[in-house]
Design goal:
The chain is mostly helical and 309 residues long. 79% of the residues lie in helices and 0% in strands. The chain contains 13 helices and no strands.
């Protein structure tokens, strides 16, 4: 294995360790709670808060220590104007909806093939958890933690191999880390775009805001819209009607601007000077190594377990 394959193998191994520690901690803590306070296990807010703690807090020191051993490069910082950032928001939301449609189509086809309904664990969490949990954990804490872990810490160390390698790796690791087929496709699309924005601007704040907006729209806003639609079935209510009108209007605006942004996206250029090392076979070098293969197999196993469970 050459030096570059070893580097990407270490990247894959580090993210595998991150995922494994998170999973092991969840199993241990849930079993402890089940033995001592089974009523807590029945509370979706407590259970989801525990899962978030295991995902973002417990394994992070080990992961940070491992990643710190790898050389990183500071990315030049550039600001964007409000018009450009609005286009970024629109592209993000459009990619989320496109990814959702692909995910639904794939899971429906797979459900028919295996004669088993494939549930969406995240949607079940959003619908079951308290709206304040959705606001605090899903819309604020998760975007901050995930952008640091899957964008900044990864791209700062892989950008030497070029923007394309960093973007594909960030998108793929981010998608696999979600651990279920429903989220894989939109996580891949958005993860790649977040990587592009971070490389373009060098500011993780931008991707955190984009991530927070899409999570807010998919959790808090979706609950408000669903509740408003249900309420209107019983009779007209000005507040609920306003929520639906505003949401539908924003939806059309974001989709229109988002598709415009995607159509013109091919004109977007990234600074070629960021590439210090040019690989002859970038995909093979970055993905076909022991660490990355084990990482992908681990999360494919999680996906299969989630589907069959």
């Amino acid at each position: 294995m050459n030096i570059h394959k070893k580097f990407f193998s270490k990247i894959g191994t580090n993210y595998l360790i991150l995922g494994a520690i998170a999973l092991i901690c969840q199993i241990i803590l849930i079993n402890i709670l089940n033995a001592t306070h089974p009523e807590y296990v029945a509370d979706i807010n407590i259970l989801s808060g525990l899962a978030s703690f295991c995902n973002y807090v417990i394994p992070f020191p080990v992961f940070y220590w491992l990643m710190k051993k790898l050389k990183k490069v500071e990315i030049e910082k550039n600001g964007v104007d409000l018009k450009t950032f609005f286009i970024y928001i629109s592209i993000t939301l459009t990619l989320m909806w496109i990814g959702n449609i692909i995910g639904l189509a794939v899971t429906m086809l797979l459900s028919g093939a295996i004669q088993t309904d494939i549930s969406n664990p995240v949607q079940q969490l959003i619908n079951s958890a308290d709206i304040w949990f959705n606001l605090l954990v899903i819309s604020i804490i998760a975007p901050i933690c995930e952008e640091i872990i899957f964008r900044k810490m990864l791209i700062d160390r892989t950008i030497r191999y070029g923007a394309k390698v960093s973007i594909v790796l960030s998108a793929l690791i981010f998608a696999f880390f979600h651990g279920n087929l429903n989220q894989f496709f939109y996580a891949f699309l958005m993860g790649g775009f977040f990587a592009y924005v971070y490389i373009k601007t060098g500011k993780i704040t931008y991707t955190i805001i984009l991530h927070a907006i899409v999570n807010f729209m998919g959790s808090v806003m979706s609950i408000m819209v669903a509740n408003a639609a249900t309420s209107l079935q019983s009779g007209f209510n000005p507040t609920d009607a306003t929520i639906l009108v505003v949401y539908i209007t924003l939806l059309f605006i974001f989709i229109a601007v988002g598709f415009y942004g995607l159509i013109t996206f091919k004109k977007a250029k990234l600074d070629g000077k960021k590439t210090e090392i040019t690989l002859e076979n970038p995909i093979r070098t970055a993905l076909l190594n022991y660490g990355m293969v084990l990482f992908m197999l681990f999360f494919i196993g999680e996906m299969i377990y989630q589907i069959m469970g």
